[in-house]
Amino acid sequence: MDLVSSVISVILFAVFVPGVVFKLPSGGSRATVLLTHAVLFAVATGAVMTLYWAGREHFGNFGATCPNGYRMTENEGCVAVGQATYAPGSPSEKTA
Fold first, then answer.
1. 78: Cβ contacts below 8 Å, ≥ 6 apart
2. Rg of the chain taking only CA atoms, in angstroms
3. Are 19 and 51 part of one and the same domain?
4. Tens digits of per-residue pLDDT, 23-47?
5. What mean pLDDT is predicted for residues 78-88?
6. Residue 88: is the preceding peptide bond cis (ω within 30°)?
7. Which of 6, 19, 28, 66 could form a disulfide with 70 if both were Cys (CB 3.0 to 4.6 A apart)?
8. pLDDT for position 88
9. Model pTM score
């Protein structure tokens, strides 16, 4: 979890505290209001974090290449191959 996702979680939590921004259902008991807000918070947080992390997945951990001993897969992930994929000191190592 990074700082941005922590801030997003705090903001969503504050928004879904009953009575801060809204209160659903307006005439319900305390337990009903808390349960409704808890479910809405869970759904909203799940949706927002899914969108946030999906946007961040387009950036690889290693840049345009994989580290030595790994190869790029079709979904742009790096998989270990069990041996060096390029010689130490080669131009590929400097771009990784």
1. 60, 61, 62, 66, 67, 70, 71, 72
2. 22
3. yes
4. 999 889 999 999 999 999 999 999 9
5. 81
6. no
7. 66
8. 72
9. 0.59
Residues 12 and 48: beta-carbon distance below 8 Å? yes
Note whether 70 and 91 are same-domain residues: yes
3-state SS, one letter per residue, for 18-44? CCCCCCCCCCCCHHHHHHHHHHHHHHH
Q: Provide the number of structural domains found in the chain.
A: 2
Residue 5 has pLDDT above 80, yes or no: yes
Q: What is the pLDDT of residues 42-73, one digit of tens each?
A: 999 999 999 988 776 554 555 667 778 888 88
> Do 49 and 65 belong together in one domain?
no
Supply the range of the domain harboring residue 75.
61-96
> With left for phi above 0 and alpha for psi between -120 and 50, is residue 76 left, alpha or beta?
left
Phi, then psi, of 72 in degrees rounded to 5 = -80, 135
Amino acid residing at 78: C
